[in-house]
Amino acid sequence: MSLELPKRILKEGEEPQVTQINNNCRIEYIMRKFTEWMPKELAVVKKDPVFSQIFKLHKNGLGFSARVVHSFLCRELVTYKLHKLWFVFARRPLRFSLQEFHAVTGFECNTRISLKEFEEWKYDGGFWSNVLRRKDGTVSLFNLWNKDKEAVKKWKNADRIRLIYLAIILCVVLARDEKANIPLKYIKVVMDLEKVRKYPWGVAAYDLLYNSITKTRDNLKDKTTSYVLDGFSYAFQIWAMEVVPKIGKLCGKKLDEGFTNGSRCINWMGAGKVSYEEIIRLEQILTPEDDIYAYIDWRGNYDVVQSDAFRRDDDVEDDRVKNLMELIRTGHDFSDHIWEIEEAPEVCSDLHDEAPVNDESAVIDESVVNDEAAGSDEDYHTPKGSKNLGSTSRRGKKRLPVCGMEKRKHKVLSTGPKQAPFNEDMKAFVAKLFEQSFSGMEQRLQKQMAETFEQMRTELKDSRKEASVDVELGEPSAKKPSPKKPSPKKPSMSQPPLRRSTRGVKKH
Description:
alpha+beta, 2 domains, four-stranded antiparallel beta sheet
């Protein structure tokens, strides 16, 4: 292929298999925490359509598959694009951009919305108003629900509801560490719930996930065994299940096969247990006839390649990506293409989410990770969150596999490319090959048998000679028993009988 294309970060077949991933997206933990702590306030927030897809995702019980997410991260293509990611699976290119993120989550992803209108807020004398007046930014979710739990119950109803919004925003939509201080800009947004419904959460969530993936890129090349993943990683997994439908069949089940015009995350359920070996096997048996979608959109697959609604003014051009998209447009077959390896990838460090004000509280304890390999396979696929949540935190409930999950998985993995039948030339070649093999084997066997018989004959002949010599010398052979006395023979007519000697015999 003469056109220059993006290169992979890791060589095909040499992707590392990590044993520990700390997934900061903790839907189960947040729902359980507030169901026990503030059930009435949580019921109010659930009625708001702004985050209805998150509650629907939790209700359907789709399990998180860290192995699927990690396998795709190892198959990334390195480009110069600042806001788009490219991956390969079964050697076919796949794009993960703001357009795909919107199709999966349904979050507001309008890049033209100005954030200045969200900076204004009105003082109401409540807890969050006082935090904004101090401007110290020293409030974390971890401290509120561990150290100030009783004080929170005495807040105004509006402030308790705002706390639930902040918990969903920080621990699910943005999937940040709960020990990090809450950014003041998000506190300003929740001061007015109308602003919460208009805020471009999709842009903020995608940018944070994008930055987390680019940071992980260096860890993967260093053959790390564990890493921390920030951002709404469920969106990345569901994207993989959508662009490669057979991966979706391994992980779960679609509620509606004809689902269109909606966020894809609410159309999945189940918690299929997927291993690295099964993912590798699937990649090997996929053929050009299998459905794999390079782009997905809110309205369908391949319907829209680039939408103006998701354009970013600060993005850069990459001729390699242009070449790649042109080959996709013309239906190029990538099954025989060997993707080159990027020796020194250029990682963009332009972060779009401000770091927390207090650096000490913003540090994520990477030594505290989910030991997903040590537990059961259900535990590995269900995000348990950080272990530094206090001794009273309980493990999340196990996701139950969908009925028939294992049967569907076996059906997907047992199918592979069918081999073409032998033609006449191939049959003749194979027949001749077998004939020559058997002929050579027969000759070697005959030669070996002849040599064996000749050796046996020689040994028998030598043994007879040795026995004859022993008899003549009057010495019985040690190898044979002493011979029996011969029976007396009758005298022959031609030979006189022998006379017995009387010498030395006394007469009586």
